[in-house]
Amino acid sequence: MVLSGQKLSLTLGHLYPDQLNLYGDRGNILTLRRRCLQRDIDLRVIGLGVGDALAPDEYDMLFIGGGQDKEQEPVAQDLYEMKGIGLWAAIEDDMPVLAVCGGFQLLAHYYRPAEGPNMRGLGVFDAWTEHKGPQSSRCIGNIAIQWNGQTLVGFENHGGRTYLGTAAPLGKVLKGYGNNAEDHSEGAVYRNAYGTYLHGSLLPKNPHFADYLVELALRRKYRDSEPAGEPELFNGTIHSYEKQVDSPSKSDAGKVELSPLLTPLDDTLEWEAHASILERLGLYSEAATVLRTHKS
Amino acid sequence: MRKPKPSQPIAEKLQPAESKLAPQLPTIAPKETTHTPYLQHQQNTVRAGLAVIAGRTAGALSRRFHLGGGTSIVGVVAQRVYPEIIKHLATELEHGSVMITGTNGKTTTSNFIAAILRDGGLRVWRNREGSNLMRGVASSLVIRAQPDGHLRRSGKAISILEVDEAALLQLVQVMQPRVIVITNLFRDQLDRYGEVNSIVAQWKQTITNLPTDTTLVLNADDPTIAQLAASFAGKVLYYGIDDLSLDLLTQQDASERHQAIDTRSCPICGHEYVYDAQFYSHMGHYHCPHCGYTRPQPDVRVTQAHVDSFDRLRIQVDALNQQHELTIPLPGLYNIYNALAAIAAALTLNMAWEPIVTGIEQSKPVFGRGERIQADGKTMRLLLAKNPTGFNEVLRTLFSEKIERDILLVLNDNIADGQDISWIWDVDFERIKGRTRTLVVAGTRALDLALRLKYAGINEKDMTIIPPAPLRAQKNSKSAGIRMKGRNKQKQKVIDAQSSQALQLSEAPSLQLYELKNALDSALAQTPPGETLFVVPTYTGLLEIHHELEQRGLTPHYWEGRDT
Lengths: 296, 564
Description:
The structure holds two protein chains of two kinds.
Chain A: E1 9-15, H1 25-37, E2 42-48, E3 61-64, H2 69-92, E4 97-100, H3 102-106, E5 110-112, E6 119-120, E7 127-131, E8 139-147, E9 150-158, E10 160-164, E11 171-175, E12 185-186, E13 188-190, E14 193-196, H4 207-224, H5 268-280, H6 284-293
Parallel strand pairs in A: 1-2, 1-3, 3-4, 4-14, 5-7
Antiparallel strand pairs in A: 5-6, 7-10, 8-9, 8-11, 11-12, 13-14
Chain B: H1 15-21, H2 30-35, H3 38-64, H4 72-81, H5 85-90, E1 97-101, H6 106-119, E2 123-126, H7 134-142, E3 157-162, H8 168-174, E4 179-182, H9 190-193, H10 196-208, E5 215-219, H11 223-226, E6 235-241, H12 254-257, E7 274-280, E8 283-287, E9 300-309, E10 312-319, E11 322-328, H13 334-348, H14 353-361, E12 369-375, E13 378-383, H15 388-398, E14 405-410, E15 436-442, H16 446-455, E16 464-466, H17 472-475, H18 480-497, H19 503-506, H20 516-526, E17 532-537, H21 539-551
Parallel strand pairs in B: 1-3, 1-4, 2-3, 4-5, 5-6, 6-9, 13-17, 14-15, 14-17, 15-16
Antiparallel strand pairs in B: 7-8, 9-10, 10-11, 12-13
Helix pairs in contact in B: 3-4, 4-7, 6-13, 6-14, 8-10
């Protein structure tokens, strides 16, 4: 039972911070840290390196970034051997997981590099990645996708092409390459695990997505111990509330349509940066929509 | 043929190399001359002559009609007419060529080497900054060639070529350098090159096929660079830092220790290597506990370094077991490496110690590496920062003293900058929080950089954001007005604080500012008289700043100021 006025806290497990850190992955961590801090939510970040086991109970959300093929190899093995079971358990238990670039590839079935043997992935996403050889061009450039009725923007840079089996894509490519430059799909989703090629970094310019992940983590952590209902605002402290909201059995539905539980922040700069990428990609009406929706 | 100068400091160690190198000059590819019939060689000279005429004509036309600088087109056209033009002309250089490659420090190192060799009595030819691909090198030779297909004044000539990491392989196939200097390898412009590892693979291939009378000068403190020696059968000279007081690991300031590291897995066996000392980024004394790979003992090394002031570094050098003292007139620890690389290259070319000292000590900061410009009773210093390591080093240099600085940051994402700017999240902007007096953010990705600064804890109100153009959506939307108010307040403060220069800004006080020239004006206006504005741009940002300053008559035309 969570007491009224208790300070909220979350623990973020950052997988392989020393090996998979190629594409500004630190920006994602900084963003989660700051956005929690501003709401007085205590976010602890714990780095999980090669050789460390992953105990799912100790974390509320997980992040895994991208690296070069050479760095990805030992990581793939460690992920499978040391962290596989824990990660699976966490994901099946609806823990929010963000996997970018190389991390995304490692959560699918396998990655076939340009040279060398296949890297085995965890198979969280029913998807696989193939590099069509050193001569094939990389997917490089700014990218915008449609996610959940809104836009996500970022930069992509990957040699491998990812193909989805039964996995649902994160979104539809508006401009850019996406998973494979063929079918307009970008990323993959399984329960609360999100794989994507978007970096740049992803979360700073997509505050709605950052908040969405934080919100998922808060709901997951505090819903279970809060049978009486849900807090009105996750604003660092849980306010007392007069009326009873959703019964516990119905709260699963909350996953699909999240109400804005986090106190809004001044994200003017974030949305301007977001809109400027949309405009660079020629998506002017989307940019206008973003600025209209999020004007301060 | 001119015999290389006898060298005092090198002693016995280089003597065999000298006798080996000397008969190799000029670097004529032997096959070509022995098997080519006389008539064909004549024809080649004629073709080369035609290529020179065509290339130079194209360059002249391009300049005449302002179709660009007219530099690389010279090489492109000449190569089109005669694909072997580089090979043909390069063989005529009496002292051959030196190539410098690596991520950071190419220009400064080339500059040092050029200054040393000039002081040593050679005629130095260089390719222009930024023209470091094949066509740029071709241009640098063609503009010095005559219509008869021969180089002008090739006696005593040596070419110092700054070579793009990805162009080395191609270039070495057409001209054999006497020395190749490889400075370091950082994560730079990955979107252009693919990944760092493919560069290493290319370099290994280049070095394996290199004639053994070429000398390789390698940075011992960069594990990826030092291991290249294993692919080479010829002579290798290492340089490195041995002053352990520069070790980041022993420094108390935590922000000093958090640095972007690109390479951490052992280049031989792939396991993680460990540092006994770390100087900046992944430079340091390292060893791999798994396979035993360890930093080689450098032949040219700094035993002591002392920072006298912002741009005066005093170093003790042990070069091939001889002790010397030297002052580097440039800011930043990375310039110690650049100086060491130049010293090692100069020693390989049998230079005496005097030209080494005078060459380095009298070097002026080159293009964007600390250049000083005076404007309106204020000083501007231009400090290029094109990748996280370079940026961190610039910030470390600027904020190591407890002085509040006036800063203009310019972040562009043009092709020459690298279009992926996610690396800004690896730069430790946290260290500048509360330590800037004024801060202006500009460039094509000004908003991204401002966002990065915001997440570093810098209040939006404490920076002036000046993007190149307004958002189209904002121009048409009333909502933008709310935002502008905040910025105008900031601007008003500036105007109040300043007088004459800021007047033109106040004419339109209700407008948010755009374009780099306004960013420059705003930053200058905010900088108090007598103080220094530090301008930290990416590569094309620097070009734009230079162009703007030239327009105002504040700096001599850059290209004309060099290569003479």
